[in-house]
Amino acid sequence: MRLDVISIFPEYLAPLELSLIGKARQDGLLRLEVHNLRDFASDRHRTVDDTPYGGGAGMVMKPEPWALALEALLGRGGAADPEPGAKPVLIVPAPAGEVFTQRIAEELSAQDHLVFACGRYEGIDERVLDWAQEHFTVRPMSLGDYVLNGGEVAVLAMVEAIARLLPGVVGNPESLVEESHQDGLLEYPVYTKPSSWRGADVPETLLSGNHAKIARFRRDQQLLRTAARRPDLLRGLEVSGLNRADLELLRSAGYHVVDGGLQRIDFDPR
């Protein structure tokens, strides 16, 4: 996979040289380059922003440096106008984008080329995104319902979430299966030695050696933790994927199947 990141603060992306992502780059599993947007500015001050039309606070990123930077990346890939099916994906971190999820990370991990455009100030001139539609699959993306100073923090999170799904990046691929959000639920709590620590003991079931009981315990913990912390995930869960034990546990937590979905109510509608 090839990833390109454009930013006016390329040093902000230095953590991508560390840990598993850095090793994946060294091993050739991932081609990742960070580009300075100011290299594509035309004046001696390397200006990339200007005041907004219509007034208002803040500055807006100018369109031409962005277009030149994106064109340069297209040129590296070969034809400036690739076939529609071969378009790189342009990800633009923005509060107004679709929310980035594990499902989207999995989807993007199957792409050959991702480009991340790190906006700053009040954002990028909207005409850049309109122009880019001809050459890229443009996807504005948000980490959540809050505002950051720029796109770099979001890109660090998204690149790590995507790249760790590539074959060979994570040493034990089984660990990817038992994570939060992989099956629509949060991950179960985990424990290690010693079995007793400061008066707190590891749940006896995990020490039993009974793999069936351990699997049931972990499943129950997933369901209960999700119900307590992220009830919105339960509402979107496929009921057909739940077994009788799952449904009985959820019922004890106040969740019942209503109109084909899970709802929290104070009585059993049956």
UniProtKB/TrEMBL annotation:
Residues at which S-adenosyl-L-methionine binds: G119, L143, G144, D145, Y146, V147, L148
Major localization listed first in the record, in broad terms: cytoplasm
UniProt domain tRNA methyltransferase TRMD/TRM10-type: residue ranges: 1-234
CDD domains: TrmD-like
Keyword annotations from UniProtKB, A to Z: Cytoplasm, Methyltransferase, S-adenosyl-L-methionine, Transferase, tRNA processing
Places the protein is found: Cytoplasm
A GO biological process held by the record: methylation
Keyword S-adenosyl-L-methionine annotated: yes
Reaction catalysis annotation: guanosine(37) in tRNA + S-adenosyl-L-methionine = N(1)-methylguanosine(37) in tRNA + S-adenosyl-L-homocysteine + H(+)
Keyword tRNA processing attributed: yes
Protein EC: 2.1.1.228
Gene Ontology MF terms: tRNA (guanine(37)-N1)-methyltransferase activity
Quaternary assembly: Homodimer.
Family per record: Belongs to the RNA methyltransferase TrmD family.
Chain's role: Specifically methylates guanosine-37 in various tRNAs.
UniProt-recorded name of the protein: tRNA (guanine-N(1)-)-methyltransferase
